[in-house]
């Protein structure tokens, strides 16, 4: 019961603020709406027994990444675009394409929910499901190679960002 | 033992909705910064789908994948924002309609 109420609140907040993000003119408002979406998604992760993911969603996404976004928005002093959306046929095509993609996504996701375990219900899990200890155990045994590769990726990203930010292009 | 009251379909519906809204943002907006934020929204929609499926099958590999998606998103944001800053410093604009150097 309480699950359903919380889910409804989080889902409505997420979708509502996602719409505000796409249709607001001021980039600062867009960034703050995205923070609200990320926070409500973090709530949904907790409902889904993914506590560790919920915490790093707040720390990494809502904390680090969105602060970076807000810094750049305020640093560049970008004006809101007028008109808001791409003019002409591109906009209509965009909305049509998005509608088709939505129907397709819904079809695939819902049909794959039906397979396997009993339709629509989640099986009960133990108390360690999604805990940091369990995540760490899997991460450092089964997924240790991708984990190490990720560290190289982050190193390359840091070097790339520094090079791009320092060099003066002519 | 913990059970779950909300049907798993609902999470997929929310995920599909968020992904579509992000797609509209990428296709229809003109500011490079907002397009970038919409891409983040799409990544998050997929993350929700991953976590919901992970819960549905009671296997934690989906959550590990979300962890990697977040790491890649962080790297992508660092480089992408550096590119946007570099473009803005050179051309005084962040609108994708004004950036057509490669159009020939």
If you had to describe this structure to a student in words, what would you say it looks like?
The complex is a heterodimer of chains A (170) and B (104). The longest helix of chain A is centred in the middle third of the chain and has 26 residues, at 51-76. Chain A has a single domain (2-82, 126-166), classed as NADH-ubiquinone/plastoquinone oxidoreductase chain 6, subunit NuoJ (Four Helix Bundle (Hemerythrin (Met), subunit A), Up-down Bundle). Chain A is mostly helical. Chain A is globular and about 50 Å long. Chain A contains six helices and no strands. Chain A has helices spanning 2-23, 27-47, 51-76, 89-114, 132-139, 144-166. Chain A starts with a helix and ends with a helix. Chain A is 74% helix and 0% strand. The model of chain A has no long low-confidence stretch (mean pLDDT 87). Chain B is an all-alpha fold and 104 residues long. Chain B has a single domain (8-103), classed as Helix Hairpins. Chain B is 74% helix and 0% strand. Chain B is built from three helices and no strands. In chain B, helix 1 (8-28) runs antiparallel to helix 2 (32-56) and helix 2 packs antiparallel against helix 3 (61-91). The mean pLDDT of chain B is 87. At the A-B interface, helix 1, helix 2, helix 3, helix 4 and helix 5 of A face helix 1, helix 2 and helix 3 of B.
- Outline of chain B: elongated
Query: Globular, elongated, flat, extended or rod-shaped: what is the shape of chain A?
Result: globular
Reading the helices and strands of chain B in chain order gives HHH
Count of discrete domains of chain A: 1
Strand content bin of chain B? under 5%
The secondary-structure class of chain B comes to: mainly alpha
Radius of gyration of chain B using CA atoms only: 18 Å
The number of E-state strands of chain B comes to 0
Tell me the name of the CATH class of chain B.
Answer: Mainly Alpha
Percent helix of chain A, as a range, is over 70%
Indicate how many domains the architecture of chain B comprises.
1
Roughly what fraction of the amino acids of chain A lie in strands? under 5%
CATH topology title of chain B: Helix Hairpins
What is the residue-averaged pLDDT of chain B?
87
CATH topology of chain A: Four Helix Bundle (Hemerythrin (Met), subunit A)
Please report the distance between the alpha carbons of the first and last residues of chain B: 62 Å
The CATH fourth-level homologous superfamily of chain A? NADH-ubiquinone/plastoquinone oxidoreductase chain 6, subunit NuoJ
* End-to-end Cα distance of chain A: 61 Å
Major sheet of chain B: none
Question: What would CATH call the architecture of chain A?
Answer: Up-down Bundle
Low-confidence stretches of chain B: none
């Amino acid at each position: 019961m309480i699950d359903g109420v919380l889910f409804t609140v989080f889902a409505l907040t997420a979708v509502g603020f996602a719409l505000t993000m796409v249709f607001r003119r001021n980039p600062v408002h867009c960034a703050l709406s995205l923070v609200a979406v990320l926070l409500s998604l973090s709530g949904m992760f907790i409902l889904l027994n993914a506590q560790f993911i919920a915490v790093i969603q707040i720390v990494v996404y809502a904390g680090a990444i969105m602060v970076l976004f807000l810094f750049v928005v305020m640093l560049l002093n970008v004006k809101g675009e007028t008109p808001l959306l791409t003019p002409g046929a591109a906009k209509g095509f965009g909305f049509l394409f998005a509608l088709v993609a939505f129907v397709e996504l819904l079809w695939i996701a819902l049909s794959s929910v039906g397979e396997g375990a009993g339709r629509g219900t989640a099986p009960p899990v133990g108390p360690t499901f999604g805990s940091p200890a369990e995540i760490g155990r899997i991460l450092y045994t089964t997924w240790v190679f991708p984990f190490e590769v990720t560290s190289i990726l982050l190193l390359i990203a840091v070097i790339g960002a520094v090079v791009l930010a320092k060099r003066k292009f002519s | 033992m913990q059970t779950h009251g909300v049907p798993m379909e609902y999470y997929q519906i929310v995920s599909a909705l968020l992904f579509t809204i992000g797609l509209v943002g990428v296709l229809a907006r003109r500011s490079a910064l907002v397009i970038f934020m919409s891409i983040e929204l799409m990544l998050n929609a997929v993350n929700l789908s991953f976590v919901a499926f992970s819960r549905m099958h009671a296997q934690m590999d989906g959550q590990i994948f979300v962890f990697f998606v977040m790491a890649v998103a962080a790297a992508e944001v660092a480089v992408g924002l550096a590119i946007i800053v570099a473009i803005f410093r050179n051309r005084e604009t962040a609108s994708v309609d004004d950036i057509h150097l490669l159009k020939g």
